[in-house]
Amino acid sequence: MLDGISSQFAATLAIKEKGKVVFAGAAGDTAISRQPFVVGHLVGMKKPSLPKAVIRALTLVWGYKNRLHMRAQGDRYILKFTCEERDYVISEGPWFYNKALFIMAKYDGLTNPVIFPILGFPFIVDIMGLPPALMTAGAVTLVGETLGELEEIKENEIKRGARARVWVFHRLSEPIWQAFPPMRFEFGTARIPAMLTFRYEHTLGFCWTCGLMEHVGKCPGPSDVFEARVVGVHWVIVI
Questions:
Q1: Is the pLDDT score of 191 beyond 60?
Q2: Domain of 76?
Q3: What is the CATH number of the domain that holds 71?
């Protein structure tokens, strides 16, 4: 009897349209989970791994063995966290499995995860080669902005003259500059030169020829990636 009433009540909430049924209003809204989701992908994995092995290893590293729900779908991994756990895992990376980078993005839990865009991941980049007079927040900010989407500069380290590190969101379509020889930057109206190199902290698996984290087909080579995207940029920066 109860099942009959429940099904009849559900039918009154449903709007039947051509080829579909729509649960409108509050009833449909409450059926959608609001728990934070993440979708992940292993970049540059040379040999396929069993999804269970990947899930077991990452949940142990994060310390969420019994509290994290994680499953594989195609070459993507769907993770369900609390808000605090999700923010920790995304902000404290990068994370690796068998030297392959595990990149992640906040996920709505509704879109097909196989086609959900994962554009990149934040990295800490150490800018090396700045002379003392250019060890300033302004100079480091300008250089950091050429690396990607600048999220933060380590200002206290810069003030001490210790290091010039930036937190950058790196897009997977762009090369890792650590793969390339020292690069000439010029500053100010006098065009003061500085030969800079870059070290991406805790970053493995990128190609030392083109700088990409992952190839679609064969390596495009430095002439296609490095020269077109880096050498062609106007490096005269006025500070």
A1: yes
A2: 37-107
A3: 3.30.70.330
For 196, residues 6+ apart whose C-beta sits below 8 A from its C-beta are 127, 128, 129, 130, 143, 182, 183, 184, 185
For range 234-239, the mean pLDDT? 40
pTM: 0.69
Looking at the fold, whether 162 and 206 belong to one and the same domain comes out as yes
Following CA atoms 55, 58, 59, 63 in sequence, which dihedral angle do they give, to the nearest 10 degrees? 170
Listed residues 80, 107, 134: the one ending a domain: 107
In angstroms, the CA 43 to CA 235 distance is: 30
List, in order, residues 6 or more apart from 85 with CB less than 8 Å away: 62, 64, 67, 68
